[in-house]
Amino acid sequence: MQSRTLLILVLGSLTTIGPLSIDMYLPAFGGIAADLSTDISQVSLSLSSFFVGLAVGQLIYGPLLERFGRKRPMYIGLLIYALSSVTCALATSVEALIIFRFFQALGACGGLVASRAIVRDLFDTREMAKVFSLLMMVIAVSPIIAPTLGGFIAAAFGWRYVFGILTGMSLLILTGAYFLLAGYERKNRAYSLRPAAIGRNYLSILTDGHFILYALTGAFSSAGLYAYISGSPHLYLELYGITEQQYGIVFAVIAVGLVTATQLNNRTLRKRSSERIVFLALAGQFAVAILLLTDALSGYTNLYLTTGLIFCYLFCLGFIFPNASALSLDTMRHTAGSASALMGALQMAVGALASALVGILQDETPLSMAGMMALCAGVALVLLNLGSRRIAVASRPS
After folding, report:
1. What is the membrane topology noted in the UniProt record heading this document (predicted)?
2. How many distinct helices (H) and strands (E) make up the chain?
3. pTM for this structure?
């Protein structure tokens, strides 16, 4: 097997497909709306359909990864992604774009699920949290680069070229994964692909209290990020009236908070447990969200204050997500593929709902975005408190 650094780079490239697909075309929303004779709120539904595709697709890939190993389903997914990216570039209506984005997400799932399963295969809980932090850093770099790059591509050549770039990137990642993961495989030919057996396996994972507690905590906490992603084009391009290039820069500045936190998380793990880090970071995220909601309700919001609060919100998420992911997979040694898929599906399902609600409730204020971010952080904090107590009670000797 290749060195740890090379492995993380490969896994990072696989996990970054999703964020690139989300972030890179955001600055082009205005151009897409004008070209397809619609408005930005309709174009934002293509973002929601992508989240739905990620949720559905991961449930499909989980059993396939158990039966056929991590690589073959991943390769097929990347090919589906490349083909769907081409159809997105050729879309002639917003309805077609929404549908093609769904299939693009189905393709992206292969790399997302496989990378998390490989991490669970190879590392223990503390090491998993550290590796997930490094993967989170790779993922967090994409919002720094992707919107800026997407904004310049859309301004210079048109939004369709953004999807052309995504097609090329996916084929490059496929080539790299094929050669660099050549020595790794884990498959179980005895794993049944019958619907009843798959359903029983997923049900057994869902009934694991440790898994469901941290999977849902991570899902609701990260759903605030999707609420921000869905609402940010309207917030910055329409309400604050900045340009597509400026939007890309603002998006990148905010993402720095996520990158910084993922690096600090690895150092924090030397002194504190993952459980404690998740609790403290969630409390901080909820406090920031309340300030953001208060700011939106006041009617005196401004670009710099809003951006600073969102920066702090994502900074907290940088501590929550890697630790919650590691803790949710901790007890899933023999069903890592299915557990990884189910965890990702829960995250995307909650994220898709938050994203869609922001679009539906959108008005001439940032209230729908800020309210959803506060709701997601609050639900995550309540779930963690109640769930931790129940697990603690259940684990006490009688």
Report:
1. Multi-pass membrane protein
2. 16, 0
3. 0.74
